[in-house]
User: What shape does this take?
Amino acid sequence: MISAFVFISAEPRRVADLATEVADLEGVSEVYSVTGDEDLIAVVRVREHDALADVVTKQIAGLDGIRHTRTSIAYRAYSRHDIEGIFSLGT
Assistant: This one.
């Protein structure tokens, strides 16, 4: 499974509507409205890089009101549960 974070800059009048539209796309598991340089962050989970390219460049970038996107692909996930397990080995 490929997980990616898509940072989205949007036209202000479209941010709320875009959040819903992006969340409805296949492959998008979550969308957050955020502060900072971007307006939204979408979490995309797909099986192949080609599918990621389609979601980002065809589906998300093609929506009305998207100014630009920037994508970061995750290569390893950490969670509090995993980290606590590492430090409790042998105790």
Summary: The two ends are 33 Å apart (CA to CA). The chain has a mean pLDDT of 92.
